[in-house]
Amino acid sequence: MGASRLGGAPAMPAAAAWPTWQGRSLSFIAQFNLAEVAPHDARGLLPPTGWLAFFYDAQEQPWGENPADRGRAVVQYYPAAEELATRPLPPDLTAEAYSAFPAAALTFAPEITLPNPWDEDLPLPENAFTEEQRAAYGFLLLTQHGDGTSRLLGNSDNLQGPMRAQCARAASQNASHPETQQLSAEQATALAQQAAGEWELLLQLDSHEAEAGMMWGDMGRLYFWINRADLARRDFSQVVQFLQCY
Q: Do β-strands 104-105 and 73-78 pair in parallel, antiparallel, or remain unpaired?
C-alpha cells in the first residue's frame, strides 16, 4: 500500500485532505516511501521514514511562473507514525480528462548529477574554465541527460533555463507575505539572485507516457523545488513547481 509509485491511487492518512484548486481536485502523480529512498540519500536531506505525495493540476498543466498559480502543485508529507489507507480518486479525476494515471512501480538507484556551470542562478567567474575544460564539461552534461530522467534531489536537468532565482522570486511574491509585494522589479530581481542558492531540487519528473500515461507539455518535465530551511523543518507546504518542455 505504501510502496513508491507513479499514479494510481495514493495511500493517505484518514485526516489528510485531498488537495484542490478552485473547486477542482488536483491529480495524484507520485508517492515516495522515504524508507525506500533513505539508503540513496547520501546527504540525509529527506526524512528517513514516512511518505511524500505529489499532486498537480495535470489537466491544465500550469507552468508555475505565475504567482496566481501557487497551490496548483501540492506536496504532502505523512510521518511514519501515520496509518495510511488507499484513498479512492475523487470523481472529477478521470483518464479521459487527463487527470488520472495508471499506477507504475518505482525503483531507486544512486546517480551522480552535475551542476550547469553556466547557470545564471549560480554564476562562476568567467575564467573558471579554460576552453578545453568548458568543452569537456559540456560533453559530460550531454552524456548525463537522457530520456526518462526522473530523480529526487541532485541537480536539475533544465530543458529551458535555470529555476532557482525563479523559486526565490515566487517565494517573495507569496501572498502570505504581503510586505514583499511592495518591492520594485529591480529589488525583486536582486532578492531572487541573492536567495537562489537556498533552493534544493525536490523532484524532477519526466514525461513517462509509456509507463504511466504522463505527458507534460511537449515531452517536458515537472520540477518541484523546496527552500533548504523548509526542508530541514520538514515543511513541504511552500514547494515551488515549474513545467519546462521542448
A: unpaired
